[in-house]
Structure formats: structure tokens, C-alpha cells
């Protein structure tokens, strides 16, 4: 049943390019597109070896005028994306702590995954978000060092993953100033570097014929342990 459900949802997926537009910390938003490094368009990133995989197209060139928003370790974060009909997971990564998030490109080592939702109870993450106005909520780790961080939200559309380079990454980066009591998080990854175009969770040649979504885990390794 899971396999046929996936095929139907993939075949029915319409053009649904998307961007991250807003986020909330414990239910309070700094405002529409405030604290977010805005993408130049709603088109996806498909080259996982380019710097665009970090914070979207041109995202390695640190933009000016983006506010850094206060948060605390353990806070609930809600992200607001354009709803999408493209099936796939959502993941979140932190980069830091750094001295100044407004000056950090995020290119290179030091990212760690803090949240992941794949195919759960018969539904991809995008379906759950469609039913919630494009919103999704998760919690920051309870143990984090104080400092500035980049928070990276990634939606991965798998409707064209049967070809190498067909998977579509939609990425939004936020700037946070987190207050925490300390903690080291591992494992960490490098962006670019952690993703390869032919990884089994990026290139899925049988996505329309026999792929079992219940076995799927999103790119970027496991959710980090912070302690």
C-alpha cells in the first residue's frame, strides 16, 4: 500500500516551486521574511556540489541587512514554506556557534542535523505541511552553546529523483542568536561535501517502480546528539 500511494502522489505532483517566507520562535514571529536570507527565486538547487546547497543560490555571498533573531536552546521553531505537492522530506540543520551570524557564509564544516521528517504514517513531510498551511514545527536541541547560528531548512522534492541530478533541493537559512547552557553536538557534516548526486537518498532510479518510502532517510546523516 505504501508503494502504490507513493506512485500516485508522485504522478499527481504539480509544479510547486517554493520558498521559506517566515518563521516563529515559540509561536512568535519576527515578521514576514525577517531573519531569513531570502532566495533570489523559487527555483530549486540541483547541484549538490555547489555552494548553492548551503543557503540557496548565491547563499554563500552573505547578504546585508538580515536581522539575527533571539532564541533559547529547546525552543519550538515553526517554519512557514510555500505549500508543495512534490513528495519528500524536510530537514533542519544548525551551523555554529559563530561570533556573528550576519557574517557567516556557512560554507564548509560545522553543520549538524537537528530535525528530520521523512515518510511517516503513510505521509511525506510535504503532505503534512500542505495540510497545515505550509507550516512545520520542531524543537531546537535542549543543550546548545550560547552564540550565533545559521538555521538551515531544507525541503527535498523527490518527484524527479529517478535521474541523476533530478532531485530538487529547496533551502532557506535563518539567523539566530541562541542562549544555551552549553553542549557539544555530533556528528557534524560539511556543506557542500556531505551530499553526492548518486547517494541512494538523492538518486532513486526505482522511485516509480518498487521504491518503498518507509525505508527512506533524508540526506545529511542522523540527527545529532547534543550533550
From TrEMBL:
Keywords assigned by UniProt, alphabetized: Carbohydrate metabolism, Cellulose degradation, Disulfide bond, Polysaccharide degradation, Secreted, Signal
Catalysed reaction equations from the record: [(1->4)-beta-D-glucosyl]n+m + reduced acceptor + O2 = 4-dehydro-beta-D-glucosyl-[(1->4)-beta-D-glucosyl]n-1 + [(1->4)-beta-D-glucosyl]m + acceptor + H2O
UniProt keyword Disulfide bond, yes or no: yes
Gene3D superfamilies xrefs: 2.70.50.70
Domain Auxiliary Activity family 9 catalytic: from-to ranges: 17-216
Signal peptide: 1-16
Primary subcellular site in the record, as a coarse category: secreted
Keyword Secreted: yes
EC number(s) from the headed UniProt entry: 1.14.99.56
One GO cellular component, as annotated: extracellular region
Cofactor: Cu(2+)
A single BP term in Gene Ontology: cellulose catabolic process
Annotated transmembrane regions: none
Domain of life: Eukaryota
Enzyme class: oxidoreductase
Localisation per UniProt entry: Secreted
UniProt similarity note: Belongs to the polysaccharide monooxygenase AA9 family.
PANTHER family assigned: ENDO-BETA-1,4-GLUCANASE D, PUTATIVE (AFU_ORTHOLOGUE AFUA_1G12560)-RELATED
Protein's recorded name: lytic cellulose monooxygenase (C4-dehydrogenating)
Natural source organism: Daldinia eschscholtzii
